[in-house]
Amino acid sequence: MSELASILQSQLLWLAVTLVVFDMAERISRRSKRHPLCHPVLLSVPVLIGILLATDTPYPVYLSGTGFLGFLLGPAVVGLAVPIWHQRALIRRLALPITLSLLGGSITAIVSAVGILSLFGAPQEILASIAPRASTTPVAMAMADQLGGIPALAAVIVLIAGVSGGVTVTPLFNAMGITDYRARGFAVGVSSHGFGAARAFQVDPTAGAFASLGMALNALATASLLSILALLL
């Protein structure tokens, strides 16, 4: 093995590359005053893919070096409970509209995705992979596997749903004249999970708290609805 090939196999190299690329993307996002098209994830993912292709680095090698970042995702998600706790009194008062919005959003996300692909004759495993698209990645992969879908495809679909939601949510809500940050945050959390929540925190703390709530509740609702559907089919 040549010296260059040995370096490219280094786990610390890919961890460092990922952190540097994301830091650069974050700087660009701040300089753009958090423009939706300059979302750090949207900028850093294509760059990292390009680096992997240019160096002919297999994805398992990259994954082995960045697994620690995946581990940190769990505590980060748990940390989202803090802003939810700070808004607990307001959330308690809005329990009914939150519940109705959650059911409407979760059912719409499942039915619209599966319905559109069904019209184009998509096979069963594709439908099972896209059904949990609005939930978080771990839930979507588990549900896709349970329904006979492809977990890796489900993860990609969840990523696309999150990034597209994070990019379009602010101009869309502004165009629709929706100014209530509670409604804006909850809607993007239900439809675009963690990416939407991250974007909501950039706009307003209250929107971020309700986006975190929407993300968590929708993961539970999607898993419950699809489990019931799997039992009925």
Automatic annotation (TrEMBL):
Keyword Protein transport: no
Primary location group: membrane
Key words of the record: Membrane, Transmembrane, Transmembrane helix
Domain of life assignment: Bacteria
Membrane topology of the entry: Multi-pass membrane protein
UniProt xrefs under InterPro entries: CidB/LrgB
Pfam families noted in UniProt: LrgB
GO cellular component: membrane
Location in or out of the cell: Membrane
Name of the protein described by the UniProt record: Inner membrane protein YohK
Native organism: Croceibacterium atlanticum
Phylogenetic classification of the source organism: Bacteria, Pseudomonadati, Pseudomonadota, Alphaproteobacteria, Sphingomonadales
